[in-house]
Request: fold
Amino acid sequence: MHPLIGFLIAVGLFAIGLYGVLTRRNAVLQLAAAELMLGGVHLVLVTADLVHNAYTGQSFALFIVVIAAAEVGVGLALILNLWRERSTIDTDDLPEEAPPETRSRR
Reply:
């Protein structure tokens, strides 16, 4: 397989993920789009590792898998908290700044 194919697929995945993060209003769909972006980066690292015959890309890819698992855990906890507080996961309904009772006092 030519490495260009892997890079083009990775760019496609990253572009679809970026489009999803920027256009979706649902927090769960934004989280899924962020996972697509991580998948694109993962594919770039593995493809570059195959091109250069260095095993650093595979180690970074393993770190991406760990980071993705942590991201899903934290992201779903935030979405669940958002649902409990506001009964919606629509990110357009979120306020621009924090409510006065949660701001830090100086």
